[in-house]
Amino acid sequence: NEDVEILINSEIDKFKSIWKAISLHNCDIIQNNFDLPFERELGNLDCYDIHGKTYFINQLNQQISLSARHIKNLYINDINYLSSYIGLQSWFDKSLWYQAKYALSMNSIPELSFNIAKIINSIFCKTKKCLVLDLDNTCWGGVISDDGLSGISIGTETAISESYTGFQKYIKSLQGRGVILAACSKNDFENAKEGFNHPDTILKFEDFSSFKANWNEKYKNIIEIVREVNIGLDSLVFIDDNPFERELACSQLPSLSVPDVGNNITEFINYIDRNGYFEPISFSIDDENRGKYYKDNKKRVDVLAEFTSYDDFLKSLEMVAEIKSFSQIYLNRITQLINKTNQFNLTTRRFTFSEVESIWGDDKFIKIYGKLSDKYGSNGLVSVIIGEVKSNVCHINLWVMSCRVIKRDLEFAMFDKLVKLCSNNKISMIVGKYYESTKNNLVSDLYKKLGFTLRSKDNNDSIWELDISNYKNKNKNNIIRINI
Q1: What CATH fold (topology level) applies to the domain 2-123?
Q2: Do 2-123 and 130-275 agree at the fold level?
Q3: What are the pLDDT digits (tens) for 101-114?
């Protein structure tokens, strides 16, 4: 018994030494765990007797999982689940093993590759942000305007009702970890809204950050959803049981993800789940609150119409910012923000968690985050600046801000803080770079607004500089109060 435990610990120690060596290079690590053995000499006893291969593999996988919980740059490619999903009979090919020492069948290789690709996609925060749902025969069975509230299928009374309930439960769980929900239905608004008053519904009207129910073409409504939620079209996934609507949305909005879900409700979850549209590598308080952030934002947009002066609107929000140097507790969120932000992103640079962690511990960088709240609620951590100090000059390597707080003047408060930190460190010059992308035209003139002088320009990329000796704060009339 002790020999088996020693062997398990020895294997884990080997992995830990490998992970430690890789981490020295600020690399993220994707570690395969292990599929179950194809044969079991001990039969069912194999899974719980200490001499069993299955027992050994399960213990090893558990130790790898525990390690991943504590090593921030370690991610697991869950071969144990994948091989079970496919089935060991299909996953493993004995002939191929004896002929070429392939540890899996040829048909399993694309599945394995796609699984790894999903993790890489998630590491670089390329996952989707918003799920757009049709309603009739998607969120419930039947047509609400024809069948009425009592006639739609939802609940546990029939197999089909349970299928729609299962789908709603899955969607609710996605929302609970930060996926934005939007509705897009050809329907009368009040009829569509009424569907979420059903006593057995899991989803509620209030769960949706945007709710479009009218007789416009759905792709036009999706464009409106993008405008309301203020994220890129390529961040949306559209689910609709109607093949015509799917095809039309695809043809008009090529960057929209529209899985061909068919019209069998029991398969809808599989299409979303297996494609990894919303696969996370971590889960933060910011993720949990994201839906609320966007709903609060809609309140702000609605109130804006009451003001003739935009400055008066900003003052009415009673904004308070927390702007401080990086804290270890926020490194995951900072990494996520860096890799997900496209519009307010001056250099388009991306950093892994390991790189962010390295910058956090390096004194040659000035690195600050910004959180913003107002009378409608908190927006969470929404801005990051990383400046590298070289010979008393601060070079802004990265500056990002969430689309949730664009046009709230947080950028001015952030820059005021950067200047103050530079002054405290006897830095007299700040150099900023703007590298054009297809999405960041919004900030093309930001440095000019801040008083920088153009140093050089190459096509649409530019380098700017600012002598901060006579700098005047840009946070106009202290429109944002800074929480020290």
Answers
A1: Rossmann fold (3.40.50)
A2: yes
A3: 999 999 999 999 99
